[in-house]
Amino acid sequence: MICSGCDYKKNAPEGVCKIKNASDGFPIRCVGLWAKDKYFYLKRYFEIFTSAMKDKWEGELYYIDLFAGCGKCRVRETCEEIDGSALVSLSVKYPFKKHIMGELDSEALNALKKRVEKTPYKDRVKIIPGDCNEKIGKIIAEITERSLSLAVVDPTGLHIKFETLQRLTEGLRIDLIISEFCVSLCDIGEK
């Protein structure tokens, strides 16, 4: 068991494991057991969102992930590999028309690109490298006015600015799924 006794804070800076890659040979994010439930419920929400809205928005349903990561996670308590939110979004019954994914870490970004290439919806994915706070204009430019979007904001640290969320939602129809950590950060004073 590679995770047994691992000092993940030292061996997985920013969450990406530096000890061992995933079974596909690419980097993997180190997560706790709670992440299994998180991604299970995210997928259920994605399924409800796309099935309920598929006929109401002329197929213009967009998925936005500001911190897409590398696409795969390893649960440190069990060593089980699971899909992260970016890959989960590509596995729903009624697919999103477009996926816009941002990622700052170049190692995670390259792994995500390779994993996305193996999916049937690879042509629907636009990956934008860099800090989402700096690239928010480019992200917004990918969203059509006619679309209804679902955005996931789940950073691993203090990486989001309130102004970024403000710009993302101005004049667009976007539902947000924001991690509790991010909401606490915005409440503290990033306003």
Question: Please, could you describe this protein's structure?
Answer:
By secondary structure, this protein is an alpha/beta fold. The chain has one domain: Rossmann fold (3-Layer(aba) Sandwich), CATH 3.40.50.150. It contains seven helices and eight strands. The chain has helices at 8-11, 34-53, 85-89, 106-117, 132-141, 162-169, 180-188; strands at 29-31, 61-65, 72-75, 81-83, 98-103, 125-129, 148-153, 173-178. The strands form two sheets. Strands 6-5-2-7-8 form a five-stranded parallel sheet, with helices on both faces. Strands 1-3-4 form a three-stranded mixed sheet. Helix 5 (132-141) runs parallel beside helix 6 (162-169).
Give the helix/strand layout.
Blueprint: H1 8-11, E1 29-31, H2 34-53, E2 61-65, E3 72-75, E4 81-83, H3 85-89, E5 98-103, H4 106-117, E6 125-129, H5 132-141, E7 148-153, H6 162-169, E8 173-178, H7 180-188
Helix pairs in contact: 5-6
Terminal residue distance:
44 Å
Specify the helix fraction band. Answer: 25-40%
Low-pLDDT runs: 182-191
Radius of gyration from the CA trace? 16 Å
Mean of residue pLDDT? 88
Number of strands: 8
Could you say what the CATH architecture is? Answer: 3-Layer(aba) Sandwich
**Share of β-strand residues:** 15-25%
Shape: globular
Q: How many domains make up the 3D coordinates?
A: 1
Say which CATH homologous superfamily is assigned.
Vaccinia Virus protein VP39
CATH class: Alpha Beta
Biggest β-sheet: count, sense, barrel? 5 strands, parallel
For the biggest β-sheet, the strand order reads: 6-5-2-7-8
H and E order: HEHEEEHEHEHEHEH
